[in-house]
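Blackboard transcription, Thursday session:
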Amino acid sequence: MSFSAILGAWIAAFLTLGIFSYLYRDNPFYKIAEHVFVGVSAAYVAAISFWTQIYPNLLGRLFPKDGPLAFTGIEFDFNHEFNILYLFPLLLGVMMLVSVFQKFNWMARWGIAYTVAIAAGLKAFGYLNSNVLNQVKASAVDIFSGSLPLFSLSGDSVFNNIVLVVGTLSALMYFYFSKEQTGNFGRFTRLGIYFLMVSFGASFGFAVMGRISLLVGRFNDLIEYSSADYNYATLSVLVFIIVSLGFWSFQNPERKEN
Amino acid sequence: MKFLEDIILKLGAVDRRVIFVLIGLAVLIPLMTPISLPVRETPTTVKFYDGIEDIPKNSKVLVSFDYGPSTRPEIHPMNVGVLRHMLRNGHQIYISCLWPDGIYMALDALEEITNEVNPDNVSSFDIKEYEDYILLGYRPGAEAVIKGLASDLRKVYTVDANGNFIDDIEMMDGIKNLNDFAYIYSGSAGYPGTFEWVKYGGDPTGVPMSSGTTSVQVNEVIPYVQTGQLIGLLAGMPGAAEYEKLINVPGIAIQGMAAQSFAHIVIVLFIVFGNLAFFIKQRRDRKY
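(Written on the board underneath:)
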């Protein structure tokens, strides 16, 4: 096992157990792991965004090899041709950055306005097409189709189609507030609440399942790092954190909240 | 009866740290002493498997690694499975990433597959970069990247992850945009991921696509399967385990299912005890 792999395992074990230590209470190990995570993530995203997007796709188009700005001595060869339009994103980006100075913070608005407008336009189209039109189309089912079985657990069936139509309509009507939800209409919207509650229950179940899966993944790694190949990284770090936490808790007793 | 009620009340008021320890043990013990539990394929997983089987042999497919280390336990096993399945069927794989650390997940998955040996100690997959797969790499921009790929891939990717010019790579010949792929797959842990691929990739181009997602996303993604916008779905770690069973390569997802099941039992028991304790307390309060 290489030194870097062993060192990586020790760091991974320390950060994982540091985060887990929060389950006991907020403590310095958790804080270290949290701050390292935030700092490394921010730096990593900034660096990778520069080298994969700004460098080849922006600078590569503004300062191509043998381009009109070659006289500056700055050239980036990415098989691009010079494209003056790319000056605008560069300008907007710089304007967003200079907003750190109070005097120029109005400049950021232009860049933000451009980004918001583009995002709104893109999302409106995608949402309408994929989430509204396609979903409405799919909920228009033939309830009494002779070719469908009367009941099936998961596939298409008359029963499932009725559930689909009634569920969609009743849940939608629950959000119709222009008529008081009383009488038959109230009973129908109450049915909508039950459908929504089933959906929330399923979401909660899936969320729990997801978290346990992540725990399984971390435990798998910790078990691997506890072997002699990694110089018993997990066990050593665990003992160190428990002893340190015990000492720290003794010095900083938990305040009981009323 | 009162004795039993008192026990339930005590269980309902147990310190949260005790619950954490119990869930930790419920996960740890099955992982250290592997227990085999049966895995039953769900229709969405079978549909997913059939969808990949239906791609004409030796096609060009786009696989997007849209996750990072934080969700690796859920998505990675399914992505490794998908790569295995696609390579077995002779497809050429084009790997893109909408998440910055997706590229390392892709490298890990490829390394895992390359190091895989069969019982005769011979490499299971003799794959070569630029022949069987290409790492296009990460580009920031989320939906804008997908939209760019749908119109002109070469505007988004001028160089691949190794810095080689896309125009000089033979495997890229004939690839102009998403329409030149036979299939799109996204292993997604959130934004950007499945939703964006459906909205800006699959739906506008009509290229068949499917996805593997974290459990948290399943409830929102599943309507896309019902409408046919996605051909099946791998839903979290259980979906990965079912898929491993279908492609007949048991892996880490199947191993994790026992731990998953035991942890669920502990959680369900505490939910039941918590609710019982709530009703018992409510009844006693009403009495006095």
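Lecturer's comment: DSSP finds eleven helices and six strands in chain B.
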